[in-house]
Amino acid sequence: MATNLAMTSILEKMTGKDKDYRYMATSDLLNELNKESFKADADLEIKLSNIIIQQLDDAAGDVSGLAVKCLAPLVKKVSEARVVEMANKLCDKLLNGKDQHRDIASIALKTIVAEVSTQSLAQSILVAVTPQLIKGITGPGTSTEIKCECLDILCDVLHKFGNLMASDHELLLGALLSQLNSNQASVRKKTVSCIASLASSLSDDLLARATDEVVRNLRNKGTKSELTRTNIQMIGALSRAVGYRFEDPILLTLFQCLINYCTSASENDEELRTRKFFEVRCPRDISSYCDEILRLSLEYLSYDPNFTDNMEEDTDDESHEEEEDELCFNLNLYDEDVSWKNFVRRAAAKCLAALIVSRPELLSKLYEEACPKLIDKYGLKMSVRGILEMPRLRDSSLSLEYLSYDPNFTDNMEEDTDDESHERRKMNDEDVSWKVRRAAAKCLAALIVSRPELLSKLYEEACPKLIDRFKEREENVKMDVFNTFIELLRQTGNVTKGQDDMNELRQVILIPRWLLKQEVPKIVKSINRQLREKSIKTKVGASRCFEGHFLFCCLELVVVLPDCLADHIGSLIPGIEKALSDKSSTSNLKIEALIFTRLVLASHSPPVFHPHIKALSGPVLSAVGERYYKVTAEALRVCGELVRVVRPNIEGFGFDFKAYVLPIYNAIMSRLTNQDQDQEVKECAISCMGLVVATFGDNLSAELPACLPVLVDRMGNEITRLTAVKAFAVIAASPLQIDLSCVLEHVIAELTAFLRKANRALRQATLGTLNSLIVAYGDKIGPSAYEVIIVELSSLISDSDLHMTALALELCCTLMADRRSSPNVGLAVRNKVLPQALTLIKSSLLQGQALLALQSFFAALVYSANTSFDVLLDSLLSSAKPSPQSGGVAKQALYSIAQCVAVLCLAAGDQKCSSTVEMLTEILKDDSSTNSAKQHLALLCLGEIGRRKDLSSHAHIENIVIESFQSPFEEIKSAASYALGNIAVGNLSKYLPFILDQIDNQQKKQYLLLHSLKEVIVRQSVDKAEFQDSSVEKILKLLFNHCESDEEGVRNVVAECLGKIALIEPAKLVPALKVRTTSPAAFTRATVVIAVKYSIVERPEKIDEIIYPEISSFLMLIKDHDRQHVGCSSLALSTFAHNKPNLIKGLLPELLPLLYDQTIVKQELIRTVDLGPFKHIVDDGLELRKAAFECVDTLLDSCLDQVNPSSFIVPYLKSGLDDHYDVKMPCHLILSKLADKCPSAVLAVLESLVDPLQKTINFKPKQDAVKQEVDRNEDMIRSALRAIASLNRISGGDCSHKFKNLMTEISKSPTLWEKYYSIRNE
């Protein structure tokens, strides 16, 4: 009741005469409507709807605006009948109301359409609104304004409810097609948008009717130019909306029609944009045209008829006049009719580009139609320009030609007299040739990105032209030229990354780097010229063309060619100095200049800068005092690099640095002591001062008592303490042995307290700093401080943070290694740290640096003479005993214990080590099977000791170990094999022949003995050690003899051995392996391929350049009829793609079709096994398909430029999405990657991918399914939803009705939506 009274009061005020009262009342109504508790009865609904519609006509605009806002919540709070009634009234206002009320009625109707959320209400609204909108569009005498408003609203309606209007589709299409011939451009433009929105829900027949109508209009030669342009735009809109639905005949017809317009263009940048899409979407099909695209793009990048090459040589005075003149240049080249034709051709080219983007899978077919005509057009243009005698252009030269395209300027304009210059200033500003040059630059950038194999050619032809075009007069074009050059440098870095040691590949891969080096002088000269320009925008762009954030160009240049600017520093310094000192320089320009300076200082040898320190230091130190914090922070970073350059080491290079010490110190100290400044500046000042003290401390003895307390004070500030801790680490590591006596005690106390803080980064930095301080100043730190530190360290040792544990143990070792440490320190370590270490060693997570630090800790305990060796050994051995609470010790923990025992023995000396070995062998001689755990650990310990020390003095130890091969326990057999191999590493000359002889003579022990041999070979390959030639021959003979073993385990071990030997002796192994690829024995061929897989590791190796020419011999076994070879080849290809992708890129065009073929389900590999009561179906091809898809997944990460996603998605990926669980999982991952990296290719076939995904997320396991099957199904659903989330991020995915329906289904299912929501927010 209270609500009705309040509403009555509001409604009365809304009809008052005072507009302020009406405004406040309408605002109150909006607030009431937005309340969730608001409900209206039938009478109130009528009053509300009537008064809000009435308020839309209010003379006060702010009142009517609020009334529109009220409609949004009102639609959800009143009945359908009221909403339909309001929609009818608004339509009436739109069609028959006053002109001044039409706009607000249109906005209100759009608001209602946007807020409709139920299908029943949508149907009612459509029935009421659609006929009136059609009447407004097609009615005779309807004004243009009404038509435009109706088309706008209809576009929104179709976009949201097009699939609910199937009965009206034909009527709507007819009404809209008729408006394509309207005389009003605005009507035609909005009609195009409407038809595009309608197209996604049209049937195939109606869509064909629409395209036929557009094509018929285009073929009508009597059609006006503006109508032709509209029809071409219509094709582009349809292509973007539903290009994936075009059938081949329709598509080719459209393509042919568009080409006819594109090839008649004169000065038109859109053709080059179209070519850009060809390059990006179809790099392989464009191969034969790359030369022409390259040449024409570069030529038209500099095409500027209003400007000449010599004009760039002007003096500063002339350049000032030139800046004024060039704004006035103009050439009236076209009359009105010619301009319209150019617009039509431009629109046609845009449509062609849209078609190419939306249908990448048909580009090969379309390319045959497009490229010849486009090239013919350019060839004709070249002939008109007087070079008809040139041979037929090759396609990679198109971009080169248009790179310098500027028909409005001639080469001799720089000879103009004053009178002629005056005439040029009278020209108008309609010169549009810059669009051609800009498009050529973008086209060239696309060619660089998509064709890395053409880098050498690009450097020979494109690089000089790009550098020459740094003089471009149009700033927008100039920035694109810089960006294109950056792409060239970046691509060079990507292609040559990590290949420095591959001599065989250097001819192919490193030539671009050599070619780039030849261009560096020209780059520097051209950039210096740009830095003298008055334009700030150009200055920033030019400087970015040098380093890091100087538009990233020189960062890429220095990354690709370290030290490449060494000979040109002198010419760069004036530009830097001017950028930092010029009063007109902006903050952004100063920041760019400072970033460049910092990076170039860091990447070049210090002596290069010594002649220029005086000129460079002044502007940099002045920048430290700048008011803008970002400039100050960057200047402080540059100071840090400057300090390293001024005094690179204590001895120096004969450069007198002393004159610069105090200026640098004073500039930084002024910032260090200033409390009222940004945190970034504070941190940079602290870091820089730490570096100054560490580098110049011997020359700052008078200043240190004032400086060091300030740094200590910064340690007490929570914001700056981490940076201050790192600064003291730098000071402590200085070879100058800086006197810290005035603050050392306070620093140690503060650091010890920091070990208790929750901040992980602070604790890590503190541990490192304490380590450095104790090493450098241990004699000045009291024993009591050591004991406190050790107590704090004990709490940091656990397997929950292995990195922290490693740092803590290293600090413990440093404390124990200090001879000045008191016995109490050793006692504290034994009582506090040792128990934690013994607990840690039993962790299965222990590995890496933490394990090495733990080994050093036990060795340090023995070296410090504070702990008995026997007690430590007993503690380690006891830690391997199983406990009643936790059960047995993990296998990984046993290996950790064994390694620590070995290190402990070696640290204790030969006598202790020998006695320990004797004790371990006695354990092995015990025949009691109850001692299996002790025997297991004893074998591991012997192996670890034997790897580090020659055990040949212990007679027959190898026979004692090999006796354990007879054990009934598999873990003891494995440990014995491990021990024998590692003992052999300690003395190859004695034990390797023994192992080889046993392999030949002990058939039953062959597998274990091969594992022993593998341990020897793997250890030799890791240690970069070599075998004797005689040993290699024996090993190879033995291994090749076992390639045909019937046991798969034996063959796998043999393959790994061969692969690891190949790393040691590649010159011998690679030819031997290649010969066996043609062996008639199937097992031998498979073993050889697996061996190659093991020989390819991430780090550069000698084998890389030797195996490179022979890779195809191994990988082409994927064509073998034996399925085992196919699987091995897929795994090998995957390993190459992951570790050394550059080795296989040239083979991928031939390998990929063979790999894709393995992803298909092959019925001949499916067999039925009769198990009596039931039959079981076995798919022998499942593992092959899984391996093939996993290989494709790896290739997408490393060789995406060689993969054509369109040819892979359908049918191969589509088939995998509907395959077995083990295949679906990698396919979902592949689809997610393709959606992110190649969205256009996925979008084109999105409709066909929905069904398998929908089937997967709706699959229900049987009621009697075991928990494992239920869990697997849940994992598969989440995997599919993750792929769907990636698809949903693609722009344009809502054009697919199937996918929209799938998303609707997910949103309506609480279970699926909850999973999808969590995945989306990961």
From TrEMBL:
Domain of life: Eukaryota
Family recorded in the similarity comment: Belongs to the CAND family.
Keywords tagged on the record: Repeat, Ubl conjugation pathway
A Pfam entry, by short name: TPR_CAND1
BP-aspect Gene Ontology terms: SCF complex assembly
Name of the protein: Cullin-associated NEDD8-dissociated protein 1
TATA-binding protein interacting (TIP20) domain mapped to chain residues: 1143-1306
